[in-house]
Amino acid sequence: MIEGPPPAMAVVGEGAVRTPLFIGSEVYRNSSYGPTHPLRVPRVSTVMDLSRALGWLPSARFRTSPRAKPQALALWHEAEYLAALQTAEKLGEATPDMRARFHLGTLANPIFPEVFRRPATGAGGVMLAAELLVGQPGAIHVPGGGTHHGLPGRANGFCYLNDVVLGIKVLLAAGLRRVAYVDLDAHHCDGVELAFFGDARVRMISIHEEGRWPFTGRLEDKAGGSAFNLPVPKGYNDSEARAVLHGLILPRVTEFAPEALVLQCGADSLTEDPLSRLALSNRAYLEALRALMPLSPRLLVLGGGGYNPWSVGRLWTAIWGVLSGQTLPDRLLATAEAVMRDLGWNGGSRPPPDEAMLTTLIDAPREGPVRPEIRDRLAALIRR
User: Fold this and answer.
1) pLDDT, tens digit, for every residue of 112-160?
2) Angle, nearest 10°, between helix axes 309-323 and 44-53?
3) Euclidean distance between CA atoms 360 and 130, whole angstroms
4) Does the 21-29+38-64+114-382 domain belong in CATH 3.40.800.20?
5) Where are the domains of the chain?
6) Does 148 qualify as catalytic in the annotation?
């Protein structure tokens, strides 16, 4: 069995955060970007179902995510864009002007029935989590968050809103002076970097696959002194992730002494993900999570990318297990296994997963050599 740490905090005071807390919503169930889109697969609903099947999500630890209103979303997003997004949902389609100005109705950012409600719910959950953490330190998991590509006036990279930016802005507006952001997604967090370029209150660390969309986040890109970017080569393995954790992430977070830490756990760096060429196990994410937990009194853990329903569900559920102090099982309970066996690609033609993906929660280790390019890039960032 793999042991998780004890819960981060107890309840302190009336109205305090009951930590650890899980914020989710039923809006994600049966919501799809369309039959050919990578986000046709179930994700957040799987995490909720699997966590409940394991007995890890009692009602006292679950909070239904509110839907953020346009006035709240205007903390980062432009009013014209928000109006267009709502209109597109009502019409069920994007006009040519919406497509040209706001990138709505494209292959990457299609119009679907919940095209405003779903991202507004994700944003609402992250903003609520930030508000709660300001009042009472602790740990909150919002797997529906992590849409780090959204831009102020247009959709970008499957992301209609940028809940990461909105959540950090809530923390800053409440008076916090040091917020660390660590992004483990296979894709660079271009929207977040744009928002906090040169902002000394925010330290951004992104580990992402080199040569992959959005083709930003170069090693030498400092975002005005606020970012450390590490592009990694295909085949990035658990041993290399450990070297990066101890050589870059932990030292840079520790020296910053954050009052809040936002951790984006996009699951597309896992071997099974169809949209990257990286080779991590979910153990690498959990190792990073456990190491980061003691470094800030406030921890906000988000989802992000991830396009294999089995690998995403297992990772984000295991993250909740660690945050909530559970013992991670060697084999899933029958009720949890049933959740995994009920998943599918929702119209995709990819083969079914290995049996271990259906019966276990934790991957086998995926160790390997730490390649010279990883060591050289780490050395360049250490010297900064």
Assistant:
1) 999 999 999 999 999 999 999 999 999 999 999 999 999 999 999 999 9
2) 50
3) 32
4) yes
5) 21-29+38-64+114-382
6) no
